[in-house]
């Protein structure tokens, strides 16, 4: 199944960003891919979300009393000497500490003394935490994590004159992130208390969801999947090294860093790594990231373990960023449509929307060595009976005025969509599903680090394979196929020049029949979903786990009765419940047929490709040994749960002797994986005909091309 004649096409250089043809412009009413206005999450009338998501209280600038101005004996936490204590003071310390590896203050003696808040002769996490404590006290914060006497020595500063040297505060490009002692953006508008889980994996992934949803430049599936993978690989590797198991890390590290285990806080390491990666990827939202990091730091103990963890995580984060610096994700590729029958065309209902991702298939993968090894055979020939059956199904089921599509199917189509402005991408919902299942199943912090990294990498690689296939096949979308159906050479298809799809949701009150602007085969939704749910099957060693998840797409409809009525829905809530991973995977893929934007073979093959990638990626990740056994998960000290475990799930994997394998996982991704077929629950509303599926499989087996 997974073979390709590599001479059939040449793919251009990769592009993560929008690739416009000359003269192409996008209506302001549709800004899904370019973010021309504020996201839905940023609007004043923000809907009430039922999912647990972070709300970060920003550490506001505090103008201190006149008696304290320029007086470091009373205000040693003002390390940048801007006459006020802010989160930037903590970040100044952390940046200097990372550069000096927490050694004795050197170089700029004055700045070293200013950042040494507790005057113990060194820059450490204790100094940063003292700044956070001062902020908590000034704001009436919940608690003081340490006394001003923490560390050795007293807090007297030897110099009090202003220096104007702010070089220790670094932005992602080395720029000074503050001006005149204030932060940029609308930081002071937030007034809600931060909600942290105490698990760095969950907390930073929740922040990632918000950053992605509010990004004005990168609301596309390729960039989002890459960013999510970078974030979670950095967290995973930090936890592995902090746990003394650098051999299971995804990337290789300098021996001095790889051997820096011992008394190291894995949580602090994970947070520091996450901060570094997200600061690099979402520098346009640096204020939000800085504020959140300050709130996280305030929850950590002031001890050498935290200090060591912060240093370790920063180094890991920098390594992950460097490893992906030249992965092709910033290349720009132009795309030109052709007039050939069956080829990808612009959306006839939204002709000015530009193409996205013609070069994303050339972006470097994370775990699999060759995207071409996972690309499927070509779709059914336009003149075949199989193509006609799929054509007629989506024409009837996916039409805006369909009398066949049920209300439940319409709800399912919208539930999974995440095409609307301000919702991020489908990766946002998939991340919510990961958290829902992880919390429900009682995962440890170390298990979450492995699960999220494994799933993120599988989805990122699935995105590359999907876009390799899309722009290799260049098959037209259903709306074009049906409007030009009289010219496809198939006697079993009848064209309809006025046909309109139900379409992916947009940000307005009307149903506009929008189709995402990239080729139809294979479905990105289905491929990402296959990778996600395939990973969950691999990790837990079973398909039979039920869960309930909330969709922000449906939350929007709950708040908009007119839009809900336009869809013919009467919703009670924004949730859907699934009895198994395969049921959710099937509905996710099938949902694109209900919207009229994919054929069923786009979905079915996409699921298979995603699952195959999930199986290949599973060998790359292992669960690190917990820092302690107080969590009651039953992992014995010194043991390691690995993925190289035969029939055992990754989470609890042991070899045949009952001992956990400590050997590094061999990474042989050159072998083409075997096609996997998941069980499909009859209750999953797919209504797939067994003969149809068999006929489509036969087409692939015979390698009949368009």
Automatic annotation (TrEMBL):
PANTHER family according to UniProt: PEROXIDASE-RELATED, PHOSPHATIDIC ACID PHOSPHATASE TYPE 2_HALOPEROXIDASE DOMAIN-CONTAINING PROTEIN
Highest taxon of source: Bacteria
Xref: Gene3D superfamilies: 1.10.606.20
Positions of the Planctomycete extracellular domain: 50-68
A biological-process GO annotation: polysaccharide catabolic process
Name of the protein: Phosphoesterase PA-phosphatase related protein
Annotated Pfam families: Dockerin_1, Planc_extracel
Molecular function via GO: hydrolase activity, hydrolyzing O-glycosyl compounds
SUPFAM superfamilies: Acid phosphatase/Vanadium-dependent haloperoxidase (SSF48317), Type I dockerin domain (SSF63446)
């Amino acid at each position: 199944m997974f073979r390709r004649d590599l001479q059939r096409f040449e793919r251009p250089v990769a592009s993560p960003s929008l690739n416009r043809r000359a003269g192409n412009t996008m209506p302001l009413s549709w800004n899904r891919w370019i973010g021309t206005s504020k996201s839905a999450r940023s609007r004043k009338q923000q809907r009430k979300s039922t999912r647990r998501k972070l709300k970060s209280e920003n550490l506001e600038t505090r103008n201190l009393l006149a008696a304290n101005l320029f007086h470091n004996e009373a205000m040693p936490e003002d390390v940048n000497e801007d006459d006020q204590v802010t989160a930037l003071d903590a970040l100044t310390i952390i940046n200097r500490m990372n550069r000096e590896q927490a050694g004795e203050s050197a170089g700029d003696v004055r700045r070293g003394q200013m950042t040494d808040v507790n005057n113990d002769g060194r820059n450490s996490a204790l100094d940063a935490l003292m700044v956070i404590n001062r902020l908590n006290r000034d704001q009436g914060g919940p608690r003081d994590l340490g006394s001003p006497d923490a560390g050795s020595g007293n807090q007297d500063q030897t110099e009090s004159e202003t220096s104007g040297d702010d070089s220790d505060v670094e932005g992602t490009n080395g720029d000074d992130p503050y001006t005149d002692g204030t932060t940029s953006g609308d930081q002071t508008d937030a007034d809600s208390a931060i909600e942290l889980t105490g698990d760095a994996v969950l907390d930073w992934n929740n922040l990632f969801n918000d950053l992605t949803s509010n990004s004005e430049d990168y609301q596309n599936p390729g960039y989002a999947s890459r960013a999510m993978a970078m974030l979670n690989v950095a967290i995973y590797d930090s936890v592995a090294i902090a746990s003394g198991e650098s051999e299971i890390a995804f990337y290789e590290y300098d021996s001095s860093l790889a051997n820096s285990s011992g008394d190291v806080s894995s949580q602090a390491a994970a947070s520091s790594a996450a901060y570094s990666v997200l600061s690099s990827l979402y520098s346009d939202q640096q204020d939000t990231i800085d504020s959140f990091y300050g709130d996280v730091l305030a929850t950590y103990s002031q001890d050498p373990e935290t200090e060591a963890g912060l240093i370790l995580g920063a180094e890991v984060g920098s390594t992950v960023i460097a490893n992906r610096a030249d992965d092709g994700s910033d290349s720009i590729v132009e795309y030109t449509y052709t007039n050939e029958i069956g080829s990808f065309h612009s959306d006839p209902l939204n002709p000015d929307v530009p193409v996205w991702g013609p070069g994303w298939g050339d972006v470097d993968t994370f775990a699999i060595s060759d995207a071409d090894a996972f690309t499927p055979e070509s779709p059914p020939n336009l003149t075949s009976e199989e193509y006609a059956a799929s054509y007629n199904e989506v024409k009837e089921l996916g039409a805006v005025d369909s009398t066949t599509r049920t209300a439940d199917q319409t709800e399912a189509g919208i539930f999974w969509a995440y095409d609307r402005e301000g919702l991020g991408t489908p990766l946002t919902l998939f991340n919510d599903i990961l958290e829902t299942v992880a919390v429900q199943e009682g995962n440890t912090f170390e298990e979450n680090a492995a699960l999220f990294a494994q799933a993120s990498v599988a989805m990122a690689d699935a995105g590359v394979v999907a876009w390799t296939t899309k722009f290799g096949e260049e098959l037209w979308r259903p709306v074009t196929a049906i409007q030009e159906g009289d010219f496809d050479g198939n006697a079993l298809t009848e064209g309809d020049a006025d046909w309109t799809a139900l379409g992916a949701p947009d940000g307005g009150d009307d149903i506009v029949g929008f189709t995402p602007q990239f080729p139809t085969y294979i479905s990105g939704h289905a491929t990402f979903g296959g990778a996600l749910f395939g990973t969950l099957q691999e990790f837990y060693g079973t398909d039979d786990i039920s869960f309930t998840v909330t969709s922000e797409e449906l939350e929007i409809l709950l708040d908009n009765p007119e839009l809900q009525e336009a869809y013919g829905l009467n919703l009670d809530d924004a949730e859907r419940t699934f009895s198994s991973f395969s049921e959710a995977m099937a509905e996710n893929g099938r949902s694109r047929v209900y919207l009229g934007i994919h054929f069923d073979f786009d979905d079915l093959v996409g699921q298979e490709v995603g699952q195959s990638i999930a199986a290949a990626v599973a060998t790359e990740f292992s669960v690190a040994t917990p820092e302690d056994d107080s969590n009651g998960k039953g992992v014995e000290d010194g043991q390691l749960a690995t993925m190289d475990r035969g029939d055992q799930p990754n989470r609890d994997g042991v070899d045949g002797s009952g001992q956990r394998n400590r050997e590094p996982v061999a990474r042989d991704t050159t072998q083409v994986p075997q096609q996997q077929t998941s069980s499909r629950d009859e209750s999953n509303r797919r209504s797939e005909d067994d003969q149809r599926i068999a006929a489509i499989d036969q087409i692939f087996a015979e390698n009949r091309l368009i």
